[in-house]
Amino acid sequence: MKIDAIILRELHMPLVRPFENGFGVTRNRRILLAEIHSEGLTGWGECTAGERPYSSGESTDTAWQVMVNELAPLLAAASPEHGGDCPHLFRAVRGNQMAKAALENAIWDLEAQREELPLAQLLGGVHESIPCGVAVGFHASIPELLSTVERELASGYQRIKLKCKPGWDLDVLERVRSRWPQIQLSCDAGSSYHLRDQEHLAAFDAFDLLMIEQPLWHDDFYFHSVLQKRLKTPICLDASIRNRRDALAAIEMGSCKIIDIKLGRVGGFSEAIAIHNAALERGIPVWCGGMLESGIGRAHNIALASLEGFTLPSDVSASSRYYAEEIIEPEVVVSPQGEIVISDAPGRGYEVRTDLVEKLTARQQSVRAMEMVA
Predict the structure, then answer these.
(1) Choosing from 2, 163, 229, 257, which is the catalytic residue?
(2) What are the start-end ranges of the E strands in the chain?
(3) Phi, psi dihedral angles at 31 (to 5 degrees)
């Protein structure tokens, strides 16, 4: 496909309510979008990097620099036929997976539109709807947390994931589990524990958790394998899984029993599908994690979660849970049964509200092809 134009944008979008995790409190999102024009069609991608390089080595500003100066010029000079061509095109740039994902996913969107296929179908999806869960961040008190959990359950969400850390774990889990003994409950430790805490973490087994996510170091396989032998609760690896090779290593070592796939963290659809396939072949369930995306990133997550191996509720929730005004239409909605129906419209399945995008844009840049040096 011929690339006619690449426009990069930074949007400022306030959250409906603050979200607190182990890296701090987020009230406003600086969201980077890639808008790619090709032969009368427009594909959109979203960079999920945070405002600071805390949850990953990327940030809004580093991703912008790499997209503007390196990745987008490389893409503008190419004529990719498929989204799967992008990892090869970007091979000269190491790391920067979230920046790469924004551009690659826009090409997949364009390809689906060109083929007049829903993006989910192009990816190989088989599900007509996806089960949804939510992540509940830290709160000032346990009663406040319980009120939030009650609200999310009333909205139909099938799984509640609680953020946890030393000092905010066993009491919280006990209160939630005693009040709702039958719900699907998990926790996300965000790498806040050490191997010396394994006896303490073994106490989590009492709460019949679906999983404990990334309890140890963000880049570790070995010590998670040691811990998994001590726990009955399945360990889910998140940040440790950057690509298919990581997934294979973690599975072979017994480091986890579940994998969370985040599109930005792994560099886009190509690597996400490869990780999914590796896990599916080995009987390891996967689910799709969320990164406070706008509707564009949310639409991509929905398409990814349509693949066969995504059998657990994903962190793909309703637009209104995060943003008062969404940049896509229709907004993403969750049914009373806690599911999102996958769109059968070509491409990402949701129209972009370009007027609102323009209104929210804080900076933008059009990118030209990079002159290649022999």
Answers:
(1) 163
(2) 5-21, 24-38, 41-47, 129-131, 133-136, 159-163, 184-188, 212-213, 235-237, 258-261, 286-288, 328-329, 339-341, 351-352, 361-367
(3) -105, 130
Identify the band that residue 265 occupies on the pLDDT scale cut at 50, 70 and 90: very high
Active site residue 100: no
Grade residue 374 by pLDDT with cuts at 50, 70 and 90. Answer: very low
Residue 9 CA to residue 109 CA, distance in Å, equals 17
Residue 372 has pLDDT above 50, yes or no: no
pLDDT in tens, 143-167: 999 999 999 999 999 999 999 999 9
pLDDT tens by residue, 9-19: 999 999 988 77
* Domains of the chain from N-terminus onward: 5-116+358-367 (3.30.390.10), 121-351 (3.20.20.120)
Whole-number Å distance between alpha carbons of 279 and 304: 14
163 catalytic per annotation = yes
Q: What dihedral angle (degrees, nearest 10) is formed by the CA atoms of 307, 43, 334, 292?
A: 100
Residue by residue, DSSP assigns 280-318 as HHTT--EEE---S--HHHHHHHHHHTTSTTB-SPBS---
pLDDT above 80: residue 59: yes
Give the Cα separation of 48 and 50 in Å (integer).
6
Catalytic residue among 100, 161, 257, 262: 262
Q: In whole angstroms, what is the distance from residue 2 CA to residue 191 CA?
A: 43
Dist CA 336 CA 148 (whole Å): 17
Beta bridge partners of 314: 132
Asked if 15 and 27 count as a contact pair (C-beta separation under 8 A), the reply is yes
Average pLDDT of the segment spanning 171-180: 98
Q: Which phi and psi (to 5°) does residue 278 adopt?
A: -65, -40
**Interatomic CA distance for residues 270 and 276, integer angstroms:** 10
Rounded Cα distance, 345 and 190, in Å? 36
| pLDDT at site 226 | 98
pLDDT value at residue 370 = 61
